[in-house]
Amino acid sequence: MSGAILFIQEDLKITEVQEEVLVGCLSIISLLGSLAGGKTSDTIGRKWTMALASIIFQTGAAIMAVSPSFQILMIGRLFAGVGIGFGVMIAPIYIAEISPTIDRGSFTSLPEIFINFGILLGYISNYAFSGLSPDINWRIMLAVGILPSIFIGFALFIIPESPRWLVMQNRVEEARLVLLKTIDNEREVEQRLEEIQQAAGTAIAKKYEEKAIWRELLSPSHAVRRMLITGIGIQCLQQITGMDATVYYSPTIFKEAGIEDKSMLLASTVAVGFAKTIFILVAIVHIDRVGRKPLLYVSTIGMTMCLLGLSLTLSLLRDGAAIPLSILAVCGNVAFFSIGIGPVCWVVTSEIFPLKLRAQAAAIGAVANRVSSGLIAMSFLSISRAITMAGTFFIFFLISALSIAFVYVFVPQTKGKSLEQIELLYQNMEGWQGSKVELGDVEHLVQKQ
Prior knowledge:
By secondary structure, this protein is mostly helical. The protein has helices at residues 4-12, 16-43, 46-65, 70-98, 104-108, 110-129, 137-143, 146-155, 163-168, 172-182, 186-206, 210-218, 222-240, 243-248, 250-257, 262-278, 280-286, 292-316, 322-339, 341-351, 355-410, 419-426, 442-448. Helix 10 (172-182) packs antiparallel against helix 11, helix 13 runs antiparallel to helix 20 and helix 15 (250-257) runs antiparallel to helix 19. It is globular and about 65 Å long. 52% of the residues are buried.
């Protein structure tokens, strides 16, 4: 949409407010899918919730591609947003539940890799189709988004269902077969299956009593409250530091720095896409080696420095020097985002909650993420006009600085531990300060239990 919006403005003659609504509403609308995703994934399963997400998104992309007016375009955006809401909620949950413990961090980061790869392809397609007629090019830019979801449809005939969901449905033998595909050691399979059955016991006994689950989330125990603070807090911070605004409005940011030519603007965004995609590989390689928390430190500190640099560049420099420095600051910001808080946010949210609450709690986290993203995206242009774009990024700098403190206080280390072991640690009051007691000590807690 970041590149397509330049030509939608020209073709459909939309206002700046309509532009903000069109760009930012996707995140707000996606909360509908995220909210429904928790119940849907518990009812029809993790796998087929992904299928539902693909179908809804394809419908939205098709409607947007043929839209004759702003109103029809918004209807397509509505469908696309709901599909995205389902997807961002269920993909990390599914991967976390099906992955072997030792590689769970890397695997759960895969959605973020492909989100970034999709953004990169979007930037490239924007540049590639920008030479076509303004009444056609933006339609093709939006229509190509249908292709990946078609691939997902075929993949669903191959991938298995989540073993944890199967256990909750009392389909234990099917769960065992799935675990045997991801764990070579049969003894470890039986041990993991026993842990899952114990964790699922309460949920099975309640037979998905929705009120009981939501009652526990709305009136949580001390352990669940700490989990919610970690999960919802990191989801909000991932967005209120302005990442989606940077991605959506990168052509506008570069225009503010002095780039006027549309082809040059879109070419600059391709550099942003490459930075965002390439550096997430750093996270994939190291997330299960050094752990979640160190990556979060590197990420939040790096983003804070880049946001300050971008703010100073836009406020103090013009034209010549501003252009390369702005591109460098934006690319650095998205690179540090991809190294840590981008993928780690979803990894942490998908692994800290107990099994019976995981889908619904993750849905709440996804809703917080989408609402934060939508509010930032829908207000970015208006705020930038009111306090300048440099001032807006200075606010993002201050928020990013606060995120460093949040990671220090509230986010524990979870590498190399089973989902059930992580739950045990959160039940220990002394283990709450992630900065003092890391989850590396969880074996001692398990022994005490």
